[in-house]
Amino acid sequence: MGKSIIDLSSVTTVGLDLAKHVFEVHGVDASGRVVIAKAMRRNKLLEFFASLPSCLVGLEAGGSAHRWARELIKLGHEARMMPPAYVKPYIRRQKNDAVDATAICEAVKRRSSSQAILRVADRRI
Question: Is 34 helix (H, G, I), strand (E, B) or coil?
């Protein structure tokens, strides 16, 4: 797989594995061909997504997923969060961040009903 970027204008679906400092991004085009697979630091993430055309972004629901989903929606992307249990069946190899991003990208394309509900910033519990 490697760390690659082909043509960002053809990205239709992105799997984003969230972490503390380094996030994994896995993007595919409409035919399912891998367009991008790379690690990205937190401070470069929004800049990267601002350069992408509007696309579907999958995230595992978790602590910071709501914040990142709101930020991605502001940039014009469709952000969908899924519980980790719905991503796990798509992991094909040993678990690491890059494999998680790939699995999230697969799962977000296939799952349409099982999504976490996005919390809005002014309605925190």
Answer: strand
Domains of the chain and CATH, by start: 4-123 (3.30.420.140)
What are the structure tokens assigned to 101, written together? 């991003």
pTM for the whole thing? 0.84
Retrieve residue 24's tokens.
Answer: 């994994």
Query: Residues 61, 83: contact at Cβ < 8 Å?
Result: yes
Q: Any idea what DSSP says for residue 31?
A: T
Confidence (pLDDT) at 94: 81
Averaged pLDDT in 10-residue chunks for the chain of 125 residues: 65 93 94 92 94 93 90 94 88 84 90 61 56
pLDDT at 9: 86
HSE-up (13 A, CA, CB side) for residue 79: 23
If DSSP codes are grouped into helix, strand and coil, which group holds residue 86?
A: helix
Task: Write the CA distances from 40 to 19, 25, 46, 51, 90, integer angstroms.
Answer: 10, 7, 10, 14, 22
2: left (phi over 0), alpha (psi -120 to 50) or beta: left
Q: Which of 120, 117, 119, 115 is nearest to 82 (CA)?
A: 115
